[in-house]
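Methods — Computational structure assignment.
A single polypeptide chain was analysed. Its primary sequence is given first, followed by the predicted tertiary structure written as structure tokens.
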Amino acid sequence: MAFGVRREELKQWKQRVRNGEVAFLTHYWLDDRFPDAKTVTKAGCADRKKLIKWGAQYGLKEAWIDEHGDLPHFDLIGDYQRRILQAEQQYEQLERFGLTQQKKQ
């Protein structure tokens, strides 16, 4: 279940993805398969080859792409999410969703 994203943000993300940009959208998320994850970032790009190449630099596998209509994307959670958002300078999303602190184990 997704929540914490404004309709306009979702609309802008979809448009950027469809335009062939690698675009990011973070939101709160609950999924029983990932009980420790409270947020997810969708990193999407309609240009699938570009998305594959972009993901490879972060160790993301092509098989992990979620084929959601014309909005193919990676779902980033946990360390991948934090590390990639930092590398991509998505500071607003890191701050807004409390992802700036490393989790203690």
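Note: The longest helix spans residues 7-18.
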